[in-house]
Predict the structure of Carboxypeptidase C (Cathepsin A).
Amino acid sequence: MKKFLCLLLLTVAVTTVQAQEDKNSKTDTKETDSASNLLFNPDQSIITEHTTTIKGQKIAYKATTGTMPVWDEDGKAIAGLFYTYYERSNIKDRAARPLVISFNGGPGSASVWMQIAYTGPSLINIDDEGYPLQPYSIKENPYSILDVADVVFVNPVNTAYSRATSKDVPKTKFFGTNADIKYLADWIGSFVTRTNRWASPKYLIGESYGTTRVSGLALQLQNNQWMYLNGVILVSPTDLGITRGVAAEAALKLPYFAATAWYHKMLSPDLQNKDLTEMLPEVENFTMNELLPSLSKGSSLDEQKRKEIAAKIARYSGISEKVVLQNNLDIPLNYFWKELLRDQGFTVGRLDSRYKGIDKKDAGDRPDFNAELTSWLHSFTPAINLYMRNNLNYKTDFKYNMFGPVNPWDRSNDSTGENLRQAMAQNPFLNVMVQSGYYDGACDYFNSKYNMWQMDPSGKLKDRMSWKGYRSGHMMYLRKQDLETANEDIREFIKNSLPKEGVSAKY
């Protein structure tokens, strides 16, 4: 199965961390980190005032940075989640102003990626295609959605500065598909109450495993917090617990292969001379109407038909027909990333196939490293540490966990795609938008379309579901043109999902 192949980031080894108490702390509740004897405060915050320019308009805003508790059934703080909450200043009617609640993926990844590269008011220093630049710095984000919505970036336990209050708290409280959804729904309920945002239209946005998270949260918030959403935005979605089957899992990769091969100019001239979005429908049609039925036949597929299918896979993927046949018409993803540019001495990136890597040897069946992830860490890690301390005045000796220790993660009983469908069926106001990069090989764009088809087989919800594609990878917003377009797509999604005055939630 392809389940969890699209995790944005793998978690890394446990690192002991600490957080600072400051004079703006809301409470003196503290727990001791037994490994370091340093104090972690699960309930503290600091407020800073800022201005920025978005779409040519000067905007003042307040940033609240800190931790807020996760409570157990007895009202005891068992963790503190680190968050940054951006509110536009001078809003007369806060009740009418949308609130966007943002999660990244992993499942052990911090909110850093979308916070300082996508929807937040500040932006890392990278070039127009998303590659690192020095000196590392933060600048204004002229495309942020803060002009139309307030945004809170949330970090689950062990990501960024979020921690359990004690090592005695069972990890099963946090580290699993359904445990994650349950405690985060409780935390969101507390946050919305504490910030007095119950009247506001609410949206969830998640990236990569964050799409699993927010799809499950949509129903959990309805059923257990009695909180109803206006929208869910899925950025580079996982399979959402939707079963593919062997044939579908093999077939659905091909349009991504074709997009990547087109980018690297590895296709025949008749395909290469077409624009990307002009070429891909041909591949998609072949995938669904010829390749998928053929793969379903397995060894019963006629030999002549097998060769015809292999030739077409080779034509669309940039991989030789011989290699396609050697792999029984199913090219493994790792092998594709190694093979496509093997003769040129390069690999291509998993999360963004525009990125090239250099391996120790050209032989082998998988790249030595993820070229794109290495590049992203190069630019993001210094920037977020500088930003927290210098811009948000959150001074601490804690290590900011780009990836936190969250293993073992209980992946059982993932029905998050069905959860989202149920939430939409029960709430006529709930809309869904999917955003995908054509060059994402972990959560590929065609599988994200397949999700929508399988989530809503009757087609009764399709008028409230939309899909957007971008000419970059997993984090499509790293490309400047896509950053602008994708944020504008979110603005339009919010605008279109706000019901007109007097319109009721009914079918």
